[in-house]
Amino acid sequence: MSLLLRNAMLLDVATGEYTEGDLRCADGRIAETGTNLRAPDGTRVLDLAGARVVPGLIDAHVHVTASTADLGALRTMSPSYVTAHAARIMGGMLDRGFTTVRDNSGADFGLADAQAEGLVRGPRLLFCGKGLSQTGGHSDFRGRGEQHVDDHPCCAGIGRVADGVDAVRAAARDELRKGATHVKVMASGGVASPTDRIDSTQYSMDELRAIVAEAEAANRYVAAHAYTARAVNRALEAGVRSIEHGNLIDDTSVELFRRHDAFLVPTLVTYWALKEEGRAFGLSEGSWRKVDEVLEAGLTALERAARGGVRLAFGTDLLGGMHRHQSHEFRLRAEVQRPLDVLRAATCGAAELLGMTGEIGTLEVGAHADLLVLDGDPLEDAGVPADPKHLRHVVQAGIIT
């Protein structure tokens, strides 16, 4: 299968410059770029008449199995029912231009394999399996009166409880055994968990370092859920590669990000959506009241990190019926960042975090042929990729979806 795009404005997101020319895709990859390219027999040719072409978008923090904001309820659902919802959610992500996503707990090798084999329509799926949580941590969804922890591997929950160095080593090894591309750890309290405080730290330093050591031994890395500067800084000191959320970081955090060459993955849109719609999609009243603790701080944290030179990736973390707001993250970030920097976070920046530089998030020859054709300039208006009227074509592996 070959596709030739003629008369396009091709964006190099690294330099922020357009080049006028053609781009040809073959066998799922970008085969060549230039002017007056030849179309081999059987090639589909589209004259774009000056439309912009950018790399396919990357969302580095999703939960494709989260059909509800009541995350604790997922563990009681049939895995086949959850999978059916995940297929619908993934299809919507692809329609919005996201050709690769990193699932940060919930998805497994089955969903990733199904997408790769064409059984599920959606973005390329990188996954961590189940996130690691201490007792009473962000993935321990038991109410105060519940005692039994059901961590059966076939359950559809997003986390598993493990306490102590030996137990977290075994849990990390188990997720890596199943093909996890990274390990997720809950290093602070969160909004959706019923018994912890957002300002708590979770896991001892010995436990965090043990998890990082297991990931590094497998040539993988650790992503840590963390909000406060205290929790973020502990995770960075332990060697975590990416901090998810980070709404309450301080200047010390920025210094540690740079020192450890780590990434921040803000997820601004989820707090906006949870405040507006969370209760309608299953968020408990107690969790809804927690949202205010992190809602206003998110933009401040992003601005501090960007100003301080922290490496950034694009993430959304949406749940339930709120997945439809995924692209609104572009508009929120544009309040404190240039449009080019927002787009970089969703392309080459996220690709670097995922260890796929040169493979995705770029229009370089040899990269996966994942790209968007836009009516409108995303360097002038960060909201262009977020508006369906500007999204003329989504191309995945060289095929128009």
TrEMBL record:
Gene3D superfamilies: Metal-dependent hydrolases, Urease, subunit C, domain 1. GO terms for molecular function: hydrolase activity, acting on carbon-nitrogen (but not peptide) bonds. InterPro entries: Amidohydro-rel, Metal-dep_hydrolase_composite, Metal_Hydrolase, Metallo-dep_Hydrolase, OTAase-like. Residues 53-382 form the Amidohydrolase-related domain. This is Peptidase M38. It comes from the Bacteria. Transmembrane segments: none annotated. Pfam families: Amidohydro_1. It comes from Nonomuraea aridisoli.
